[in-house]
Amino acid sequence: MKRLIPILAALGLGSAAQAGEVDVLGARAVKEGANLWRFEVTLKHADEGWDHYADRWDVLTPDGEVLGTRVLYHPHVREQPFTRSLGGVAVPEGVTKVVIRGHDKVHGTGGREMTIELPR
């Protein structure tokens, strides 16, 4: 067993922290109203169960102001990558692009973010 532990760790099977951070693979913005938008976001994360999974994604201005957060209430172990949406996000006048970032229960924010232009 002592020989097996380093092998499992090297393969990424030895610890919940091995699942890594959340990557944003895709994002789309759809205008809903005056300054309201709906975002459809595709995430990828090696969810391992309730202790380590992608638990949210955020929509931010380029300078870091959080405009909206989509909470994910359960792991998506067998559904990777997966897409979820968030509507009713108020984007201030003059903001022409937003940043989408993921979050998981172990690492917090991190992984691949995506900046998208808002269609006008």
What attributes characterize this protein structure?
120 residues; mainly beta; Immunoglobulin-like; five-stranded antiparallel β-sheet; 8 strands; 45% strand; disordered N terminus
Describe this structure in a few short sentences.
The protein has 120 residues and is mostly beta strands.
Task: Write a structural description.
- This protein is mainly beta and 120 residues long.
- It has one domain (17-117): Immunoglobulin-like (Sandwich).
- The chain is built from one helix and eight strands.
- Strands 3, 4, 6, 7 and 8 form a five-stranded antiparallel β-sheet that branches. A three-stranded antiparallel β-sheet has the order 1-2-5, with no helix packed on it.
- Strand 6 (97-104) and strand 7 (108-109) form a beta hairpin.
- The longest helix is centred in the first third of the chain and has 7 residues, at 4-10.
- It starts with a helix and ends with a strand.
Q: What spatial form do the alpha-carbon principal axes imply?
A: elongated
Label the structural class: mainly beta
Oligomer: single chain
Major beta-sheet overview: 5 strands, antiparallel
What CATH calls the topology is: Immunoglobulin-like
Helix content: under 10%
Q: Uncertain runs with pLDDT below 50, 5 residues or more? A: 1-17
Terminal Cα separation, in Å? 60 Å
Mean pLDDT over the residues = 82
Order of SSEs: HEEEEEEEE
Structural domain count: 1
By CATH, the superfamily comes out as C2 domain
The CATH class, by name, is Mainly Beta
Annotation, overall tally of beta strands = 8
